[in-house]
Amino acid sequence: MSIDEQVLPYPIPNDAALDPPPEWAELRGTCPVAHVELPSGDRARLLTRYDDVKLVLADPRFTRQLTAPDAARLTTDGGVFNSEMAQFIPDGGEGHQHWRRLVGKWFTAKRMAALRPGMAQIADDLIDDLIERGAPGDLRAGLGFPLPVYVICDMLGVPAADRDRFSYWSDTLLNLTRYSKEEIEAAQLAFFEYMSGHVAAKRERPGDDLLSELIAAGGAEDGGLTDMQILVTGMALLVAGHETTANMIGKMVAMLLADRSRWERLLADPSLIRTTVEESLRLDANSGFGLPRYLPVEAEVGGTVLPKGTTVVCSMAAANRDENAFEAADRFDQTRSPNAHLSFGAGAHSCLGQALARTELQVVLEVLLRRLPGLELAVPVAELERVEGLAVGGLRTLPVRW
């Protein structure tokens, strides 16, 4: 049976930690709007071509209303895409733009530049701890995971000492197949109660942080956000602000060490750090689920008419390897510029925190190259293991020596 006649399991199974499943290239070539079965057993359509993914992510007809009665459920146990909480942040139009303007003030290039020295200090301190514990060490646990958590906790004014709880709550919200419905509901309730208490405390004693500023902007009637929107924004940023970047730090360093000539090139020419970060983001073959969208009207994509009620999954990672969008798309080119990858999405819903993620990834590379120039993988690439069962992709561990 040819691939365009099959219903593929999704996410497409893949053992290789850093390489894409072979089906991606085949789908882009012959079946750009594929039939897939989600972990829930429900059916959806998968997009793998660059132009199609970019179009859908920017097209307001494709909504985030994944709780609609006829929308495909990603899982039977709930999680971030099917959460009722997501409904408190406006899905589109002026309401969504208003929310982005209020929150986006904290993610400007100017503010990121101001955060850089503090990020570099955190990275230096974490590497001190790594060196003290001795090689080999786990770069994911020692640097990749804690650094973005410290940064986002600081931005939200929440204690970094609670980071193990945040990690568990994030994982349950990003669940595909790892946690039960009971575990997810209990974790979401605990997370909600924690953030409610935190927002209430900020109301009493404001600080120099994002949540205090959102509270100071007043309620919805004053041009600000409702209490529930502030609370859900805090939860969303805590999850998004550490999980994806923490995983990306590990994957980026693994990609550079898997072919160590890439690392050597950066040592010789650190001015390539920025373009290397972008190319790592583009070639990340283990980015997780992708972005689901729900279609409340009929629409055409990639020459296929999709009926009203279709759920579409956009694979940005597959689209980022489209030969029609990138020359030598499968080659890791550390000088590639411009690099219009879709790793942060596109259009009105593109990732709000992309300047923060880029800054963290650049700073981590700067500090690692300076502190641990002899860094290398402590296991063969084939032994690196993927994170399984969550909507985000990553490596379970990244064993390194120096």
Automatic annotation (TrEMBL):
Transmembrane segments: none
Protein name in the entry: Cytochrome P450
Protein family per UniProt: Belongs to the cytochrome P450 family.
InterPro entries attached to this UniProt entry: Cyt_P450, Cyt_P450_B, Cyt_P450_CS, Cyt_P450_sf
Signal peptide start-end: none
Molecular function via GO: heme binding; iron ion binding; monooxygenase activity; oxidoreductase activity, acting on paired donors, with incorporation or reduction of molecular oxygen
Source domain of life: Bacteria
Cofactor dependence: heme
Source organism per UniProt: Nonomuraea phyllanthi
Keywords: Heme, Iron, Metal-binding, Monooxygenase, Oxidoreductase
PANTHER family: CYTOCHROME P450 BJ-1, P450, PUTATIVE (EUROFUNG)-RELATED
